[in-house]
Write a structure and sequence with these properties.
alpha/beta, DNA polymerase, domain 1, seven-stranded mixed β-sheet, 7 strands
Length: 308
Amino acid sequence: MTGHIAVLPSEAIDALNVKQNGFYIDATFGRGGHSGHILDRLGEDGKLLAFDCDLQAVAHAKEIYGDDHRFSIVRGNYSEMADEVVRIDMCGEVDGVLFDLGVSSPQLDQAERGFSFDRSGPLDMRMDQSRGQPVSEWLMTVSVEELTEVFRDYGDERYAKRIARRVVEAVSEKPITDTVELAELIKAAHPRWERHKHPATRCFQALRIFINRELDHLKVALENCVELLRPGGRIVVISFHSLEDRIVKRFFRGPDNRSTLPRGLPVVIDEVQWPLKRIGGAIKPSGDEVSSNPRSRSSIMRIAERVA
């Protein structure tokens, strides 16, 4: 359960503006790095509710924080957080929500989870292994066109079609069930790749995002957060690739009402005001943090606050 280092820890907690008696949500518990920092700043009357769909993460949370009366965790995707907040009658009372998106270091490092292309393991990639379909099963039914779309849209893979065609051809001969087997297949089909970067990197990212519906869940969760927050409450999101960051950036900015409202319509500004305001600009890790935690190098953090 060790090996995971929280990204932008002090910056994220500062961004949440933690109050001692506040109610906060860690939407992506992982291995508890950010949760620990939040608890350090909470007083006796503060509360922290965490979510994670990974059974190992939930077990770890209960092991290290199970005796802390201020802490509770729910096994579930962060897109489902609104249901729990409504259940405990705290809708509109949340002081801050933190998202640390992507996959945690222990998930990457455990070969049996199937996230890593350089460790042999079952080709799974599900964050919640009690739901959905592992990548190995999905590949047995996918068409070249569908796989091309996944590699292109979720991995920005330049040679998506060429690689997809080779993968589908291979699966038609026998199932691909091992991570390294798929990685080597992608490498053989890839004509050119970035130096010091494995040729399967983008395709593995794409498969993980797709199989876990990560972008769909993020959109739902962000929408729900607005109603959960009290005025002055904050949403803090740490993302690791442009697809996530684009969704967050656009959501925080809100719709452009000027382009959607008819000309000459008498509209009171409060009626169309977006309920979030952006706090500062994008925040990236320092050189020292990247040196000590290389997996933080692509991270970017954005902050928004609920307006009255």
